[in-house]
Amino acid sequence: MASSTSSSLFKLATFTLCLGILFGTSSGQLTANFYARTCPNFRSVITRAVNSAVSSEARMGASLLRLHFHDCFGCDASVLLDTTANFTGEKGAFPNAGSIRGFNVIDTIKTQLERQCAGVVSCADILAAAARDSVVALGGPGWNLVFGRRDSTTANANTANSNLPAPTLSLSGLISSFSNQNLNTNEMVALSGAHTIGQARCTTFRSRLANDNNINASFATATRANCPTSGGDNNLSPLDATPTRFDNRYFTDLISQRGLLHSDQELFNGGSTDALVRTYASNQATFFRDFASAMVKMSNLNPLTGSNGQIRTNCARTN
Ligand code: HEM
Ligand SMILES: *[C@@H]1O[C@H](CO)[C@@H](O)[C@H](O)[C@H]1NC(C)=O
Ligand SMILES: *[C@@H]1O[C@H](CO)[C@@H](O)[C@H](O)[C@H]1NC(C)=O
Protein backbone atom coordinates (compact mmCIF):
# COMPACT_ATOMS: atom_id res chain seq x y z
CA MET A 1 0.00 0.00 0.00
CA ALA A 2 2.94 2.36 0.38
CA SER A 3 3.69 2.91 -3.31
CA SER A 4 4.07 6.60 -3.93
CA THR A 5 5.65 7.92 -7.10
CA SER A 6 4.49 7.03 -10.56
CA SER A 7 8.03 6.17 -11.59
CA SER A 8 8.40 3.57 -8.86
CA LEU A 9 4.98 2.25 -9.79
CA PHE A 10 6.12 2.08 -13.38
CA LYS A 11 9.31 0.21 -12.48
CA LEU A 12 7.37 -2.20 -10.34
CA ALA A 13 4.82 -2.73 -13.08
CA THR A 14 7.53 -3.33 -15.68
CA PHE A 15 9.37 -5.69 -13.38
CA THR A 16 6.21 -7.59 -12.50
CA LEU A 17 5.23 -7.76 -16.14
CA CYS A 18 8.60 -9.31 -17.11
CA LEU A 19 8.35 -11.94 -14.41
CA GLY A 20 4.70 -12.45 -15.27
CA ILE A 21 5.75 -13.29 -18.81
CA LEU A 22 8.44 -15.65 -17.53
CA PHE A 23 6.38 -17.46 -14.92
CA GLY A 24 2.79 -16.71 -15.82
CA THR A 25 2.16 -15.00 -12.47
CA SER A 26 2.11 -11.46 -11.17
CA SER A 27 3.61 -12.23 -7.78
CA GLY A 28 7.22 -11.27 -8.43
CA GLN A 29 9.69 -13.70 -6.93
CA LEU A 30 7.46 -15.18 -4.30
CA THR A 31 7.95 -18.91 -3.74
CA ALA A 32 6.49 -21.58 -1.47
CA ASN A 33 9.86 -22.61 -0.01
CA PHE A 34 11.35 -19.14 0.40
CA TYR A 35 12.35 -19.70 4.06
CA ALA A 36 13.08 -23.45 3.77
CA ARG A 37 16.75 -23.01 4.65
CA THR A 38 16.67 -19.70 6.55
CA CYS A 39 13.72 -20.22 8.90
CA PRO A 40 12.27 -23.69 8.44
CA ASN A 41 9.83 -23.54 11.40
CA PHE A 42 8.35 -20.13 10.70
CA ARG A 43 4.97 -21.49 9.61
CA SER A 44 4.37 -23.45 12.78
CA VAL A 45 5.35 -20.42 14.91
CA ILE A 46 2.73 -18.32 13.11
CA THR A 47 0.01 -20.97 13.15
CA ARG A 48 0.48 -21.66 16.85
CA ALA A 49 0.32 -17.95 17.76
CA VAL A 50 -2.76 -17.34 15.59
CA ASN A 51 -4.59 -20.37 17.00
CA SER A 52 -3.84 -19.23 20.51
CA ALA A 53 -4.99 -15.65 19.84
CA VAL A 54 -8.18 -16.83 18.13
CA SER A 55 -9.00 -19.24 20.93
CA SER A 56 -8.76 -16.42 23.48
CA GLU A 57 -10.82 -14.10 21.30
CA ALA A 58 -12.51 -15.40 18.13
CA ARG A 59 -12.81 -11.89 16.68
CA MET A 60 -9.02 -11.68 16.46
CA GLY A 61 -9.22 -14.01 13.44
CA ALA A 62 -11.38 -11.45 11.66
CA SER A 63 -9.11 -8.60 12.68
CA LEU A 64 -6.00 -10.35 11.34
CA LEU A 65 -7.69 -11.12 8.03
CA ARG A 66 -8.69 -7.48 7.67
CA LEU A 67 -5.20 -6.27 8.56
CA HIS A 68 -3.79 -8.23 5.64
CA PHE A 69 -6.48 -6.84 3.32
CA HIS A 70 -5.67 -3.27 4.34
CA ASP A 71 -1.99 -3.91 3.84
CA CYS A 72 -2.56 -5.42 0.43
CA PHE A 73 -3.52 -3.38 -2.46
CA GLY A 74 0.52 -3.54 -2.17
CA CYS A 75 1.34 -6.21 0.42
CA ASP A 76 4.38 -4.61 2.04
CA ALA A 77 3.53 -4.31 5.76
CA SER A 78 3.24 -0.53 5.38
CA VAL A 79 0.01 -0.74 7.39
CA LEU A 80 2.02 -1.71 10.48
CA LEU A 81 4.30 1.34 10.55
CA ASP A 82 3.81 4.01 13.19
CA THR A 83 3.94 7.64 12.08
CA THR A 84 7.46 9.15 12.05
CA ALA A 85 8.96 12.54 11.25
CA ASN A 86 9.16 11.43 7.61
CA PHE A 87 5.73 10.00 6.93
CA THR A 88 2.22 9.71 8.32
CA GLY A 89 1.41 6.10 9.07
CA GLU A 90 -1.60 4.34 7.58
CA LYS A 91 -2.97 3.50 11.03
CA GLY A 92 -4.47 7.00 11.19
CA ALA A 93 -6.03 6.88 7.71
CA PHE A 94 -9.81 7.12 7.75
CA PRO A 95 -10.62 3.43 7.04
CA ASN A 96 -8.10 2.33 9.69
CA ALA A 97 -8.32 4.82 12.57
CA GLY A 98 -9.87 3.30 15.69
CA SER A 99 -10.68 0.30 13.57
CA ILE A 100 -7.87 -2.03 12.55
CA ARG A 101 -6.52 -4.26 15.28
CA GLY A 102 -4.29 -7.29 15.77
CA PHE A 103 -0.93 -5.50 15.96
CA ASN A 104 -0.10 -7.24 19.24
CA VAL A 105 -0.47 -10.65 17.68
CA ILE A 106 1.79 -9.69 14.77
CA ASP A 107 4.35 -8.25 17.23
CA THR A 108 4.30 -11.43 19.32
CA ILE A 109 4.92 -13.55 16.23
CA LYS A 110 7.68 -11.23 15.07
CA THR A 111 9.43 -11.39 18.45
CA GLN A 112 9.36 -15.19 18.39
CA LEU A 113 10.67 -15.32 14.84
CA GLU A 114 13.45 -12.82 15.56
CA ARG A 115 14.56 -15.13 18.36
CA GLN A 116 14.69 -18.14 16.01
CA CYS A 117 15.98 -16.55 12.83
CA ALA A 118 16.87 -12.89 13.25
CA GLY A 119 16.22 -10.55 10.36
CA VAL A 120 14.78 -13.21 8.08
CA VAL A 121 10.98 -13.32 7.97
CA SER A 122 9.25 -10.17 6.73
CA CYS A 123 6.29 -8.56 8.46
CA ALA A 124 4.40 -8.66 5.16
CA ASP A 125 4.80 -12.46 4.97
CA ILE A 126 3.68 -12.77 8.61
CA LEU A 127 0.51 -10.83 7.74
CA ALA A 128 -0.21 -13.07 4.75
CA ALA A 129 0.27 -16.27 6.73
CA ALA A 130 -1.66 -14.99 9.77
CA ALA A 131 -4.64 -14.11 7.55
CA ARG A 132 -4.75 -17.61 6.13
CA ASP A 133 -4.34 -19.28 9.51
CA SER A 134 -7.12 -17.08 10.92
CA VAL A 135 -9.58 -18.17 8.25
CA VAL A 136 -8.69 -21.81 8.85
CA ALA A 137 -9.00 -21.37 12.64
CA LEU A 138 -12.58 -20.10 12.19
CA GLY A 139 -13.60 -23.01 9.95
CA GLY A 140 -12.86 -21.58 6.51
CA PRO A 141 -10.72 -22.83 3.64
CA GLY A 142 -6.93 -22.82 3.49
CA TRP A 143 -4.82 -21.91 0.47
CA ASN A 144 -1.25 -22.34 -0.66
CA LEU A 145 0.94 -19.43 0.29
CA VAL A 146 4.07 -18.15 -1.38
CA PHE A 147 6.64 -16.03 0.45
CA GLY A 148 9.39 -13.53 -0.11
CA ARG A 149 7.49 -10.25 0.33
CA ARG A 150 9.72 -7.57 1.80
CA ASP A 151 8.72 -4.70 4.06
CA SER A 152 8.31 -1.12 2.94
CA THR A 153 10.49 1.63 4.33
CA THR A 154 7.64 4.10 4.20
CA ALA A 155 3.88 4.33 4.50
CA ASN A 156 1.31 6.36 2.64
CA ALA A 157 -1.82 7.42 4.49
CA ASN A 158 -3.17 9.20 1.40
CA THR A 159 -3.02 6.01 -0.67
CA ALA A 160 -4.78 4.15 2.15
CA ASN A 161 -7.51 6.80 2.20
CA SER A 162 -8.02 6.77 -1.53
CA ASN A 163 -7.61 3.05 -2.28
CA LEU A 164 -9.45 1.28 0.51
CA PRO A 165 -13.15 0.90 -0.25
CA ALA A 166 -15.63 2.81 1.93
CA PRO A 167 -18.82 1.22 3.31
CA THR A 168 -20.84 3.93 1.57
CA LEU A 169 -19.79 2.80 -1.92
CA SER A 170 -22.28 1.72 -4.56
CA LEU A 171 -21.86 -1.49 -6.53
CA SER A 172 -20.11 0.35 -9.35
CA GLY A 173 -17.83 2.08 -6.83
CA LEU A 174 -16.91 -1.28 -5.31
CA ILE A 175 -16.25 -2.77 -8.72
CA SER A 176 -13.90 0.04 -9.69
CA SER A 177 -12.12 0.09 -6.33
CA PHE A 178 -11.20 -3.57 -6.77
CA SER A 179 -10.52 -3.32 -10.48
CA ASN A 180 -7.96 -0.60 -9.68
CA GLN A 181 -6.10 -3.42 -7.92
CA ASN A 182 -6.57 -5.84 -10.77
CA LEU A 183 -9.32 -7.76 -8.97
CA ASN A 184 -12.39 -8.46 -11.06
CA THR A 185 -16.04 -8.26 -10.03
CA ASN A 186 -16.33 -11.96 -9.16
CA GLU A 187 -13.20 -11.73 -7.03
CA MET A 188 -14.62 -8.63 -5.32
CA VAL A 189 -17.79 -10.55 -4.40
CA ALA A 190 -15.84 -13.59 -3.17
CA LEU A 191 -13.47 -11.42 -1.09
CA SER A 192 -16.40 -9.51 0.41
CA GLY A 193 -17.41 -12.88 1.86
CA ALA A 194 -14.70 -12.12 4.46
CA HIS A 195 -17.54 -10.27 6.18
CA THR A 196 -18.77 -13.70 7.23
CA ILE A 197 -16.58 -13.03 10.28
CA GLY A 198 -16.08 -10.04 12.53
CA GLN A 199 -17.76 -6.88 13.68
CA ALA A 200 -18.34 -3.33 12.53
CA ARG A 201 -18.79 -0.10 14.46
CA CYS A 202 -22.13 1.69 14.43
CA THR A 203 -20.53 4.69 12.72
CA THR A 204 -19.92 2.57 9.60
CA PHE A 205 -23.58 1.53 9.11
CA ARG A 206 -25.68 4.24 10.83
CA SER A 207 -26.54 5.89 7.53
CA ARG A 208 -27.70 2.55 6.10
CA LEU A 209 -30.07 2.21 9.07
CA ALA A 210 -31.39 5.71 8.42
CA ASN A 211 -31.55 5.82 4.64
CA ASP A 212 -31.61 2.43 2.94
CA ASN A 213 -34.94 0.85 2.15
CA ASN A 214 -33.47 -2.49 1.06
CA ILE A 215 -33.12 -3.55 4.69
CA ASN A 216 -34.94 -6.36 6.47
CA ALA A 217 -37.43 -4.79 8.90
CA SER A 218 -36.78 -7.03 11.90
CA PHE A 219 -33.04 -6.86 11.30
CA ALA A 220 -33.20 -3.05 11.13
CA THR A 221 -35.12 -2.82 14.41
CA ALA A 222 -32.70 -5.09 16.24
CA THR A 223 -29.66 -3.32 14.80
CA ARG A 224 -30.98 0.18 15.58
CA ALA A 225 -31.33 -0.80 19.22
CA ASN A 226 -27.54 -0.96 19.38
CA CYS A 227 -26.86 1.90 16.96
CA PRO A 228 -28.95 4.94 17.82
CA THR A 229 -29.21 7.99 15.55
CA SER A 230 -26.74 9.80 17.76
CA GLY A 231 -24.13 8.40 20.13
CA GLY A 232 -22.84 4.87 20.35
CA ASP A 233 -20.46 5.35 17.41
CA ASN A 234 -18.22 2.54 18.60
CA ASN A 235 -20.96 0.03 19.44
CA LEU A 236 -20.27 -3.16 17.56
CA SER A 237 -22.63 -5.29 15.49
CA PRO A 238 -21.76 -8.58 13.80
CA LEU A 239 -21.21 -8.46 10.04
CA ASP A 240 -23.35 -11.59 9.66
CA ALA A 241 -25.44 -13.78 11.96
CA THR A 242 -22.50 -16.16 12.68
CA PRO A 243 -19.56 -13.77 13.14
CA THR A 244 -17.13 -16.28 14.63
CA ARG A 245 -17.68 -18.92 11.97
CA PHE A 246 -16.21 -18.67 8.50
CA ASP A 247 -19.14 -20.01 6.48
CA ASN A 248 -21.46 -18.75 3.71
CA ARG A 249 -24.00 -17.18 6.08
CA TYR A 250 -22.98 -13.68 4.89
CA PHE A 251 -24.47 -14.46 1.48
CA THR A 252 -27.73 -15.97 2.76
CA ASP A 253 -28.06 -12.89 4.98
CA LEU A 254 -27.70 -10.65 1.92
CA ILE A 255 -30.57 -12.49 0.24
CA SER A 256 -32.81 -11.72 3.23
CA GLN A 257 -31.63 -8.09 3.13
CA ARG A 258 -29.63 -8.47 6.30
CA GLY A 259 -26.40 -6.99 5.02
CA LEU A 260 -24.93 -4.76 7.75
CA LEU A 261 -22.98 -2.27 5.63
CA HIS A 262 -24.50 -0.38 2.73
CA SER A 263 -21.66 -1.78 0.60
CA ASP A 264 -22.56 -5.34 1.65
CA GLN A 265 -26.18 -5.04 0.55
CA GLU A 266 -25.09 -3.44 -2.75
CA LEU A 267 -23.88 -6.91 -3.78
CA PHE A 268 -27.49 -8.11 -3.72
CA ASN A 269 -29.66 -5.24 -4.80
CA GLY A 270 -30.97 -6.11 -8.24
CA GLY A 271 -27.62 -5.66 -9.97
CA SER A 272 -25.06 -7.73 -11.85
CA THR A 273 -23.71 -9.53 -8.77
CA ASP A 274 -27.02 -10.97 -7.50
CA ALA A 275 -26.48 -14.25 -9.32
CA LEU A 276 -23.09 -14.88 -7.74
CA VAL A 277 -24.45 -14.05 -4.28
CA ARG A 278 -27.15 -16.69 -4.86
CA THR A 279 -24.54 -19.20 -5.97
CA TYR A 280 -22.44 -18.66 -2.85
CA ALA A 281 -25.54 -18.71 -0.62
CA SER A 282 -26.53 -22.10 -1.95
CA ASN A 283 -23.07 -23.61 -2.34
CA GLN A 284 -20.52 -23.03 0.41
CA ALA A 285 -17.87 -25.16 -1.32
CA THR A 286 -17.97 -22.88 -4.37
CA PHE A 287 -17.59 -19.82 -2.13
CA PHE A 288 -14.64 -21.42 -0.29
CA ARG A 289 -12.92 -22.32 -3.56
CA ASP A 290 -13.36 -18.85 -5.06
CA PHE A 291 -12.46 -17.08 -1.80
CA ALA A 292 -9.24 -19.06 -1.50
CA SER A 293 -8.14 -18.31 -5.04
CA ALA A 294 -9.04 -14.62 -4.74
CA MET A 295 -7.05 -14.44 -1.48
CA VAL A 296 -4.01 -15.89 -3.23
CA LYS A 297 -4.33 -13.21 -5.87
CA MET A 298 -4.85 -10.39 -3.34
CA SER A 299 -1.97 -11.65 -1.15
CA ASN A 300 0.40 -11.39 -4.06
CA LEU A 301 -0.46 -7.86 -5.21
CA ASN A 302 2.59 -5.68 -5.83
CA PRO A 303 4.97 -7.15 -3.28
CA LEU A 304 8.41 -5.68 -2.71
CA THR A 305 10.92 -8.38 -3.63
CA GLY A 306 14.61 -8.89 -4.35
CA SER A 307 16.61 -5.98 -3.00
CA ASN A 308 13.62 -3.65 -2.63
CA GLY A 309 12.45 -2.76 0.85
CA GLN A 310 13.88 -4.47 3.92
CA ILE A 311 13.17 -7.12 6.55
CA ARG A 312 12.04 -5.08 9.52
CA THR A 313 13.21 -6.11 12.98
CA ASN A 314 10.22 -4.43 14.59
CA CYS A 315 7.09 -4.40 12.43
CA ALA A 316 6.06 -0.95 13.68
CA ARG A 317 9.32 0.75 12.62
CA THR A 318 11.73 0.78 9.75
CA ASN A 319 15.21 -0.49 10.63
C1 HEM B 1 -15.84 -4.74 -0.49
C2 HEM B 1 -15.39 -3.67 0.10
C3 HEM B 1 -15.21 -3.60 1.59
C4 HEM B 1 -15.66 -2.61 2.40
C5 HEM B 1 -16.42 -1.36 1.97
C6 HEM B 1 -15.31 -2.97 3.75
C7 HEM B 1 -15.58 -2.20 4.86
C8 HEM B 1 -15.47 -2.64 6.15
C9 HEM B 1 -15.89 -1.89 7.31
C10 HEM B 1 -16.47 -0.48 7.29
C11 HEM B 1 -15.68 -2.67 8.40
C12 HEM B 1 -15.97 -2.31 9.85
C13 HEM B 1 -14.80 -1.49 10.36
C14 HEM B 1 -15.08 -0.83 11.69
O1 HEM B 1 -16.20 -0.76 12.15
O2 HEM B 1 -14.12 -0.34 12.29
C15 HEM B 1 -15.12 -3.91 7.94
C16 HEM B 1 -14.77 -4.98 8.74
C17 HEM B 1 -14.14 -6.12 8.28
N1 HEM B 1 -13.68 -6.34 6.99
FE1 HEM B 1 -14.19 -5.28 5.37
N2 HEM B 1 -14.64 -4.17 3.73
C18 HEM B 1 -14.54 -4.58 2.44
C19 HEM B 1 -13.89 -5.70 1.99
C20 HEM B 1 -13.20 -6.59 2.81
C21 HEM B 1 -12.28 -7.59 2.35
C22 HEM B 1 -11.89 -7.83 0.90
C23 HEM B 1 -11.83 -8.25 3.46
C24 HEM B 1 -10.84 -9.37 3.56
C25 HEM B 1 -10.52 -10.20 2.58
C26 HEM B 1 -12.51 -7.67 4.59
C27 HEM B 1 -12.40 -8.10 5.88
C28 HEM B 1 -13.07 -7.54 6.96
C29 HEM B 1 -13.17 -8.18 8.25
C30 HEM B 1 -12.70 -9.58 8.60
C31 HEM B 1 -13.83 -7.27 9.10
C32 HEM B 1 -14.12 -7.44 10.60
C33 HEM B 1 -12.89 -7.01 11.36
C34 HEM B 1 -12.97 -7.13 12.87
O3 HEM B 1 -13.95 -7.63 13.42
O4 HEM B 1 -12.00 -6.69 13.51
N3 HEM B 1 -13.29 -6.64 4.17
N4 HEM B 1 -14.99 -3.87 6.56
C1 LIG C 1 13.90 10.43 7.95
O1 LIG C 1 14.59 10.33 6.71
C2 LIG C 1 15.97 10.67 6.81
C3 LIG C 1 16.54 10.73 5.40
O2 LIG C 1 16.18 9.58 4.68
C4 LIG C 1 16.66 9.67 7.71
O3 LIG C 1 18.02 9.96 7.83
C5 LIG C 1 16.01 9.70 9.07
O4 LIG C 1 16.55 8.69 9.90
C6 LIG C 1 14.49 9.49 8.96
N1 LIG C 1 13.85 9.69 10.25
C7 LIG C 1 13.05 8.79 10.81
C8 LIG C 1 12.46 9.17 12.13
O5 LIG C 1 12.79 7.71 10.29
C1 LIG D 1 -36.24 -10.81 6.93
O1 LIG D 1 -35.55 -11.78 7.69
C2 LIG D 1 -36.33 -12.93 8.01
C3 LIG D 1 -35.49 -13.81 8.92
O2 LIG D 1 -34.28 -14.11 8.32
C4 LIG D 1 -36.75 -13.64 6.73
O3 LIG D 1 -37.53 -14.76 7.04
C5 LIG D 1 -37.48 -12.67 5.83
O4 LIG D 1 -37.75 -13.29 4.60
C6 LIG D 1 -36.65 -11.41 5.60
N1 LIG D 1 -37.39 -10.46 4.81
C7 LIG D 1 -37.04 -10.11 3.58
C8 LIG D 1 -37.85 -9.03 2.95
O5 LIG D 1 -36.10 -10.61 2.97
UniProtKB/TrEMBL annotation:
Keywords: Calcium, Disulfide bond, Heme, Hydrogen peroxide, Iron, Metal-binding, Oxidoreductase, Peroxidase, Secreted, Signal. Residues 1-28 form the signal peptide. Removal of H(2)O(2), oxidation of toxic reductants, biosynthesis and degradation of lignin, suberization, auxin catabolism, response to environmental stresses such as wounding, pathogen attack and oxidative stress. It comes from the Eukaryota. PROSITE patterns: PEROXIDASE_1, PEROXIDASE_2, PEROXIDASE_4. Belongs to the peroxidase family. Ascorbate peroxidase subfamily. Belongs to the peroxidase family. Classical plant (class III) peroxidase subfamily. Binds 1 heme b (iron(II)-protoporphyrin IX) group per subunit. The keyword Oxidoreductase applies. It holds the Pfam family peroxidase. It is an enzyme of class 1 (oxidoreductase). The lineage of its organism: Eukaryota, Viridiplantae, Streptophyta, Embryophyta, Tracheophyta. Its cofactor is heme b; Ca(2+). InterPro entries: Haem_peroxidase, Haem_peroxidase_sf, Peroxidase_pln, Peroxidases_AS, Peroxidases_heam-ligand_BS, Secretory_peroxidase. This is Peroxidase. Gene3D superfamilies: 1.10.520.10, Peroxidase, domain 2. It catalyses: 2 a phenolic donor + H2O2 = 2 a phenolic radical donor + 2 H2O. It is found in: Secreted. Residues 29-319 form the Plant heme peroxidase family profile domain. Its EC number is 1.11.1.7.
